[in-house]
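new request in #modeling-help
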Amino acid sequence: MTKRVAILISGGGSNMVALARSMQGDHPARPVLVLSNDPEAGGLAKARALSIPTFAVDHRPFGKDRAAFEGALQSALGTARPDIICLAGFMRILTPDFTAGWDGRMLNIHPSLLPKYKGLHTHARALAAGDAEHGCTVHEVTAALDDGPILGQARIKVQPDDTPGTLAARLLPLEHQLYPAVLRRFASGDRTPVML
Ligand code: GAR
């Protein structure tokens, strides 16, 4: 049975586009919803251009009431009935109550070689640490931030003149290869990590 995939974004949505474009032909999944916490997220227009239904739940009116915000996310997801959720540049922290409901069915891409550099500013932190290698990780989402079983990683060499910006720019095309490769495998029931 074809798997239904919802993609959650906060920004430009380039990983969302890579995922959506990959779900064609004999791919075991199809995109059913692109959901954002920001009604102005650039990725929403890109999703509409790909004929994918979109919805936004603006987090700001909810203030500190994460439960209410997540309740609104859940009701949008309830209508779309996804089998798999892909976080793709979704920049809100989800509570354990929310993640528990999607245990084993929610993926995230993070711009570091996890378990290194959970959280923000990953490129700057890799440079500050003098790392020879940097990369990105796709993992299953669990209650702990940027944790959970690793489903794939892609690596780049750090160059002497790299900045956070050059690292991010070199890594993004690899993210666009890695995430679709992991999703294809995951949607077919295979959790063997993809290593690029
Ligand atoms: C990507 O680099 C992704 O790895 C990162 O945000 C960017 C989103 O770009 N995600 C995180 O930092 C999650 N903590 P996109 O909107 O163009 O896909």
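bot summary: Residues 3-195 form a domain with the Rossmann fold fold (CATH 3.40.50.170).
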